[in-house]
């Protein structure tokens, strides 16, 4: 057979009109009138419009017949092609394309056709010389799929302005053929028959023939009920064993159910299926290919199936039922409001707020509308609204809660055809990767074309939906890990309360933002009541007044606080006060955007990681410097489990080394020596760096992790710098002064002998020359040189360091600069300079685990949070293990930074 001219329809001649044919013959005359429920979006727009006309300032009735839309039908009179029902099929290549289009779009959301079964029959169809053996419903389904496919191709061509008038009508021809074939079905109702009707529904939706779709779906519902698809197999009597597998029956039933809810919502008509009227188990989440393969039927490759998307749609459809009910009540009640006679209702209304809400409401309705007529009407409303604000009085009672809008948006968009998230449109595996708020946003974005809204307008609409701090900002004085007072802040939004606790350093640099301390008697002058008061009395009320929309992100809020403080170092209101609010607001923003905190922080950095990197933790297991009472000058000796393959394994190894170190210290110095320093590391009576490193090396070996763990050192040298010298004996009575060259030599000898990969603050914060010289040398040794006191997370210091080429890594401490946004700006700049970023805790910490999310969000590949010991330190490590598991569960790409922690940012493939 010549495939290019394959014909269909020789057994579909001499046809008599069927019920479907009646529908097909409806030419939609201009007098077309069909019932549209009060809750339909068309009626909603009309209600608003007539209220507007009554209220328009001119007092004149404006009525643009063009803008009045009486139904969803958009085709107008249609040409019929039924006489051509025996025409040629599309060439094989086009047919294949149409089938692929169908299975990669509609099928994902509505899997009522088994793809493996269909494709098998499809192959035999092309191999066969005759149509014998191919059931009428299957042929009708096939040709409907051609109609859908060619309709979609037509849309794509139109968008690309390559539209071919010759082919633009082809989808109609295919569809009419499908209807003609359907007329020859036997009166025996079968699942095939239902599938063909369902496919017709999707063609009708794709061509905006919603009303016709409504009646076609009605037939499908009745046939499904007549063969017992609304109950499980065990309760189905008298049907015989002609039905496909129970799983396929469920998929067909729920496809009907979901579509029924969508149409009910759009047209404002009661759904045909009531919730009490069926009892069918949810379908499985397996793709039909997997399903067929598992029953040993086929050996097909995986397709575009997106997991539990179908199940999510079923759940959304259940919600639609509820939204539908509440909308009916809401809209019917609102439309009846007579503004002049019903002044009582509006007595206490704040009209300014309502005006803004009304505008937002209209924009949302416009965007939610999956039908371009409705969108046009909504857009018309918008124009008129701009001329007069009085319409908002009517809209007051129409305003949906944000929750309603989300529900409505998600449902409408998820079930709308042609917007199924796919890999091609960038939303592959979306249900696995995103929470429902984002599913809403993603599907909205993918639907922009059909609404006629630009992405900018959509963003505007999405972002202007109010989401702000709703209650007074609370602040309290609490304690940090050293038992010193610190600031706690709580902000409240409609999502709940969001809290943050501020950390504090001991070896502080001179260029850090100023934390406010009370002085006086209480807590030896370390109280933070002034900072607490500044939050409660100044920052909080000012923020409340501003009503920042938290979905707009944190930058505006942080900039506002910086201005409110007015100083260059946050000394007026206190960096501890400002940072507490900034961190709490970051959490509130993340919740408003329905993002995990780490993803929100990534978005604030204006990057979205395609691959999340879980950082290597650097555990400070031996403490010295100003963090401990021993005579060791160097402040921190850290172990980094770079050879592990997950953070969970890394933490296990580090803990094993830590415990082994404890035993070694007991053995060597006695039990009195196992006291720990501020960051949880041991502080045995040692002085020389080599003593510390030897202890650590023995512990690594003793724990069995030799070769898999690297070392980082933070001498925190500003603490022992004075008079041009570095005094390693500053904690004892025996000075041990080194010049910067001698200190550099000491570092180099340590690097030669031990697996050191990172050195932080090797020189004092203003000893630029030494930094510059050492950095050149360290490049040869491939050592990361981190600036802490040197940079103070401050853009000005970063620029200077870049100019001098002093270092290649930024130690990121949020309280050094005082806001989250400025910390992210410093991060951004460091990345631009080709540097690495190393997130850090402070020695005076709290149980707040913010920095764990920060390290993942910015994809920096490593962080330090102290020893694997003490609640405030393990809080961060525990959170990182939670994130690692969460990322795996979300099935978003993620990996442990491991050996390549210095290249994490590029591995995270930020967009
Ligand atoms: C964490 C550190 O200590 P502190 O918080 O005392 O500055 C450090 O110096 O890197």
From TrEMBL:
Keyword Lyase set for record: yes
GO biological process per UniProt: DNA-templated transcription; glycolytic process
Compositional bias ranges of the Polar residues kind: 10-19
Domain Enolase C-terminal TIM barrel: residue ranges: 611-904
Gene source species: Knufia peltigerae
Annotated ranges, domain Enolase N-terminal: 470-601
Molecular-function annotations in GO: DNA binding; magnesium ion binding; phosphopyruvate hydratase activity; zinc ion binding
Pfam family for this entry, one: Enolase_N
Lineage: superkingdom: Eukaryota
This protein's pathway: Carbohydrate degradation; glycolysis; pyruvate from D-glyceraldehyde 3-phosphate: step 4/5
GO terms for cellular component: phosphopyruvate hydratase complex
Catalytic activities: (2R)-2-phosphoglycerate = phosphoenolpyruvate + H2O
PROSITE patterns per UniProt: ENOLASE
Region Disordered, residue ranges: 1-27, 55-74
Record's keyword terms, sorted: Glycolysis, Lyase, Magnesium, Nucleus
Domain Xylanolytic transcriptional activator regulatory: 213-289
Family to which the UniProt record says this protein belongs: Belongs to the enolase family.
Primary enzyme class: lyase
CDD domains: enolase, fungal_TF_MHR
Protein name: Enolase
Matches recorded under SMART domains: Enolase_C, Enolase_N, Fungal_trans
Cofactor: Mg(2+)
Enzyme Commission code(s) on record: 4.2.1.11
